[in-house]
Sequence to fold (519 residues):
Amino acid sequence: MTEAYITGIGMSEVGVRLTRSPLGLTLDAVREAIADAGLTLDQIDGVATYPGKMQTYLGFSPIGSDDVIEAFGLKTRWHIGAAEMTAQLGAIAAAAAAIKAGLARHVICFRTVYEAAAMARPDEFPPLERRKDVTGNSQWVSPFGAFSAANWTAQFAMRHMKRYGLTREQLAQVAINDHANAALNPRAIVKQPLTLDTYMSARMISTPFCLYDCDRFTDCSTVVIVSAGDALDEVKTTPVRIAASAGSVERYSWDQAEWASAYPTGRDLWKSTDYTAKDVDTVQLYDGFAFQPITWLEGLGFCDVGEGGQFLEGGKRIARDGELPMNTGGGQLGWGRLHGFGFAYEAVVQLRGEGGARQIPGDPKVAIATSGGGPMAAALLLAKD
Amino acid sequence: MVWQRSRVRLDKDNSAFWTGGAEGKLNIARCGDCGGFIHPPREICRHCLSENVAPFAVAGTGVVDTYTVNHQAWAKDMEVPFVIARVKLDDAPGVYLTTNIVNCPVDAVEIDDAVRVVFEEQDGIWYPLFEKIA
Fold:
């Protein structure tokens, strides 16, 4: 059976309230990824995305697989675009599975987000309805003013504070680290470092989360190309193997999950590989909210359950020159809300040694990229081997 | 809190939950065969796959499993701050309800606080909120 490799990465402009269309941004990212891999569009035979085009909330996901296939004239043999999967990076895991099954050779995996522009242009991109005729999972949280995943995730964070002694100073290290790295990433929205004082005096959103603990709406398209191991002679980049993947959904209603799915998914990631946590050179952990990396650090076994806060203490361990460099591109708190795909992109950048000013030292060979928070999770183990 | 709460669309599965407050009842779907609770409510028991599922009026008491003080007005008419909590019901194992803790200052809520249901009605929907048991 052939292996699956990431062979190309691409990204559009990253911004807030961009005027270029979502399809245009997607084209920019696809063009860059194709050129990066040294492929042409007629070599692409698969497309995968999460969560697919979302007609009820176009800002969240304005472009689906069908759009990409139709608009760019692709001749595909396999494609998928779905919200009903493990989490964002599940789309890349699905592409790897399709390639291993022989269903495709070069798959464009993408995530296009347009939430900031959508807020500025509500007539064109209507906001999600949270007040009237609420149904599905939203009915169990929205009536109580818990409109945002910030509220849902904050409750998991609060439990960690009360049960395990997580402090705001420890939590702050996620945003401080993200800002420090983003300042070295030309594509990141954040340009300046963040001090602990600024963090501690910021206004609260939903305790214990302050403004800096929450990612902000961003407009961008991110593309990762996954290729078959027996098609690597067609690409020009250093291939990065998808050495393992895992994903799970605990409960579909966020408030019924006792634990974030990062815990079972983190454990599962190691079941289909000989690599262990000790082999990992860098982690790119989903941080739509600053607490989520703590669940991943604990779930993946970098520390015990309840010790994530202590792991972050002082921030040195997760810095670029620390023992486990984390979110080296700035994460979602610094780079922007790329919604999961930015973590896979950055893992590849680091493994290729193309991080420029933010490149971690040594010759990193193994990285983890994760996505999801609360009851949904997907993780990729990526290796240059 | 006086904001217009999100109006739920009633259906055959959720009506007992959202209207039970009219009779002072906190209705949670329960399996008539295995006794397990199913929340969010569905017509099939997620524990034993029985279709013998019906609303069951629980005691309406529980404990604060976890909480957050929300400071962000997500809608223009939303008055902040207020407490959003996840309440673990005493007599419905495995069921959590997202709710608001009311009738106390926002800084008076802690994990493991004992709470009981109080209903707030808006436009035919009876929202189950909780207050601390003194």
Remarks:
- Chain A touches chain B through 39 residues (CB under 8 Å).
- Chain A has one domain: 4-123+216-383.
